[in-house]
Amino acid sequence: MKNILITGGAGFIGSHVVRLFINKYPDYKIVNLDKLTYAGNLANLKDVENRPNYVFVKADICDYDKMLEVFEQYDIDGVIHLAAESHVDRSIKDPFTFAKTNVMGTLSLLQAAKVTWDGHWDNKRFYHISTDEVYGALELTKPEGNPPYGDKFFTEDTKYQPHSPYSAAKASSDHFVRAFHDTYGLPTVVTNCSNNYGPYQFPEKLIPLFINNIRHDKPLPVYGKGENVRDWLFVEDHARAIDIIFHKGKIAETYNIGGFNEWKNIDLVKVIIKTVDKILGNPEGYSEKLITYVTDRAGHDLRYAIDSTKLKNELGWEPSLQFEEGIEKTVRWYLDNQEWMDNITSGEYEKYYESMYGNR
Ligand code: NAD
Ligand code: TYD
Q1: What number of other Cβ atoms are within 10 A of residue 203's Cβ?
Q2: E-assigned strand segments in 103-161
């Protein structure tokens, strides 16, 4: 495969995937297609934007005619589809945008691939990036002590039971991808990954939001009692898994991606505080006073935990970073890249933040 369409490449995970592919595959043409919503930021790709094997196209995946044009113009033979509305809290406020982009946008891309490739599936691939959130929530059967915090994990066979408008829309898009394989033979692959963290994540998500708030001595809004559990993976390890699965994954298969790295939110927040305080030279525990318990998120999933054994056994992927190392690297990146953060937080962001958390 030579001409790869990556959608959502100006976002958090997408920018890491674009960078990896540009650097690793100089013979490929990487077409990054992104609408540049509030979450899309070309500054995420500053270091690679002038490479000869890279093109940026500003477009909306819901625009079917435009998708057809892009497939034709760039002679696309592989798709890595990441473009989506991705924040659960926003989906609770505005579910329609999520249905439109995540469901109709994915459908428009699928149809463009099907029509352009027209049954010539050899060396073609449509890779859809999904989330563990489609599986719903696991119980916290072992809340005390060390992780895992429950007996069950999400496997590739876990039934879909999404609870938020975000995960419902992602689930629906996953079904369309599989339906396009089963009905038309489109060569698809789907992966469901756990929570990602690392550089270039929009600061509405827990980790960058809290790092930035600690830096500015602002409250850290912990939902409910902070007991919810998430399974965290360093974003570059996700990008590496995407590379392996794009090239070697079996058609029509699903792979779960995760690092067996469960954290209760409140414990994670304390690790972030400790790391930021250490780097800023504050006394240990100094920023714990910022922890503010706020009203819980509606329908807040209790626990996510991914079983990625299949990916390890079949394709040999394993996470490369220990969590402590990944968190330290991440905190340092945000503190060292204050300009990147300030450029985001100086505009519309403030209005969004106030509408979510009040004028704190
Ligand atoms: P993000 O919100 O940071 O980036 C999404 C990107 O998609 C942005 O660049 C945005 O401009 C673009 N986009 C949005 N709507 C578009 C449209 N209609 N047309 C074209 N582009 C559009 O999201 P992310 O965290 O990087 O997530 C990327 C993908 O990975 C999503 O599909 C998400 O569901 C999935 N995922 C994310 C996580 C996570 O922890 N962040 C975990 C598992 C899976
Ligand atoms: P988030 O980063 O939004 O990812 P997701 O909802 O997709 O898992 O949130 C991670 C966890 O942190 C989730 O349990 C919700 C919680 N959370 C807070 O407690 N406070 C916050 O301000 C945010 C954004 C999230």
Answers
A1: 19
A2: 125-131
- Tokens matching residue 114: 């099907």
pLDDT digits (tens, 9 = 90+) for 45-84: 999 999 999 999 999 999 999 999 999 999 999 999 999 9
Residues 83 and 75: their CA atoms lie apart, in Å, by: 20
The residue whose CA is least distant from atom 5 of ligand 2 is 88
- Which pLDDT score, from 0 to 100, does residue 360 have? 42
Centroid of ligand 2 to alpha carbon of 230 (angstroms) = 9
pLDDT bin (cut points 50, 70, 90) of residue 338 is: very high
Q: Any idea which ligand is nearest the CA of 221?
A: 2
DSSP one-letter code for 159: P
Stated pTM of the model: 0.97
> Of ligand 2's atoms, which has the minimum distance to the CA of residue 357?
22
Which residue, 13, 60, 59, 50, is CA-closest to 30? 50
Task: Give me the phi and psi of 83, to 5 degrees please.
Answer: -60, 130
| pLDDT tens column, 132-157 | 999 999 999 999 999 999 999 999 99
Cβ-Cβ contacts under 8 Å for 345 (sequence gap 6 or more): 203, 212, 353
Are 210 and 220 a contacting pair, CB within 8 Å?
yes
Residues contacting ligand 2 via CB (< 6 Å)? 88, 195, 205-206, 209, 221-223, 228, 230, 265, 297
